[in-house]
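call fold(seq) -> tokens
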Amino acid sequence: MRSVSQAFAIMRLFADSETLTLSDVSRAVGLSPSSVFNLLGTLLGEGVIVREQPGKRYRLADAWRRSGLLRDGDARRLIDRMVPLLAEFAQVHEVTVGLWQTASRDRMQLVAHAESNAVLRIHLARGQRQPLGGGAVGRAIAAAQAPGSDEIVRRFAAVRWQKPVSPGLYAEQIGAAAQAGYALDDGYTHIGICTLAAVIPQAKPEFCVSASFFAGARTASEVEKLGRALIALAQAGLD
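ret:
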């Protein structure tokens, strides 16, 4: 049943987060606030989540968090290993860094992120979910998976692009990512934001690191240098 699948998606989201509001959950899982309200009510009634007092934030119940049933052990260890590396990378390169995990056939989820101390910086909403084909991360994942042209077109069609891009150019960008080892999205997903992404090799399910900065702020050689550094960060995830 769809509602059961949606409930498990919310439970897994809470397993990788501290506290979340109804709006946080709605954005992350791509459901309407009214649907999320009903699902949260059911999970509250079953004792899976609890409401923080005071306020309107929710968290996974202690018993469920201690059980670890909603977390993949290897995935959790990889995430824990990457968190300090993300923080260091963000400061050194003055970018916002994300760690993304494929959550389903259609979605990827932000499971960790870090920001620099720059006065102006890009913020990523914790726990957010995006279409699997979107952004630099979607291109990097497709480059690593080589899923075939039909699947690439399917993923492309599910994304709401802010800057026009054709399916042919999208496929070319995936091919370029396969050659370079990292993918680039220069304002196609979010106007004014440039993002690079590199897949963590051999990690299952797929994990990908991203680095975002304001478009036009770096030269082509600086972007290429950042891409090589991002590849090294991704490889460090399995060291």
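The first helix runs from residue 2 to 15.
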